[in-house]
Amino acid sequence: xxxxxxxxxxxxxxxxxxxxxxxxxxxxxxxxxxxxxxxxxxxxxxxxxxxxxxxxxxxxxxxxxxxxxxxxxxxxxxxxxxxxxxxxxxxxxxxxxxxxxxxxxxxxxxxxxxxxxxxxxxxxxxxxxxxxxxxxxxxxxxxxxxxxxxxxxxxxxxxxxxxxxxxxxxxxxxxxxxxxxxxxxxxxxxxxxxxxxxxxxxxxxxxxxxxxxxxxxxxxxxxxxxxxxxxxxxxxxxxxxxxxxxxxxxxxxxxxxxxxxxxxxxxxxxxxxxxxxxxxxxxxxxxxxxxxxxxxxxxxxxxxxxxxxxxxxxxxxxxxxxxxxxxxxxxxxxxxxxxxxxxxxxxxxxxxxxxxxxxxxxxxxxxxxxxxxxxxxxxxxx
Length: 382
Ligand SMILES: Cc1ncc(COP(=O)(O)O)c(C=O)c1O
Fold this sequence. Notes:
alpha/beta, Aspartate Aminotransferase, domain 2, eight-stranded mixed beta sheet, 12 helices, 17 strands, binds pyridoxal-5'-phosphate
């Protein structure tokens, strides 16, 4: 079987993790936690980075520190992994779903601007409310889909105007760039994931990054049970046990040392697929970055005719190739069926869902395996 995206441990992982075991620093304090946070902050050029247990926890805390509360609205893409939508519900807010850009598959930022300009109003508090229901618009969560950054300039501009917090879901896009700036630091708060299938992993892990010192302090506090006093069991609000362990951080420090190499390999893989599928233009397309973006190509994605997707998926799996569809549109899931989809439908997201497949692209995939995957895809069409 050729896996979709498996983790690669080819650096100092054993050495750093052994250090934790040898010294007894295995839990949520220890020098690797600080080293991992400092390393990511330096890499991204951001003032603060706080490590947490996973990307979902990072998104959850991001909404809390952004002040998103019960009955607020959170603007989200419908084409995404489900976590950034679920976290809106964790804080009692409701999602409104938006379509994607057909080229990048990221949030259609023009739709967000249209919604804020025509359906919302700023009130005396400076906050923005959805006119139809009177709910406050708490945040927008652009998701950098499949590693590709969102077109952030237009989004951050309109959100600044309406005082809507931008929480960049960069869980898939570490190593990507938007107009020369690193993905993850393009909004008010960025969230990262180090899940096993991500470009670098800690087994499970996440991080919140921000230039706002107050927010960073609050995340640290909330992620450690909101403990006020290191000695006494004194807590000043409802906190969470969300801190990453030193063992996981040690894993992360080793992986971070390889990030540039892994991102370069992911780009090479996507480009190689493009070459290998040359001549199949009428039948399939390899998703390509926008002119203003440098994608980490976390996943390599092909687009085929809608009636080909499912049969091709089944064919590849039968050949031992771990192809995968992209996510079901979130507004079609039972928990979100009643939620609003701006514009009534999400035609580009639906078209992407109907036509996109992810194909194997682990950092350690061999060139022979790339050829085997492309040969299998081509054999389906010939
Ligand atoms: C877009 C997106 N957001 C959030 C998450 C959640 O991250 P984690 O699995 O680390 O909780 C993931 C994936 O894992 C994701 O792909």
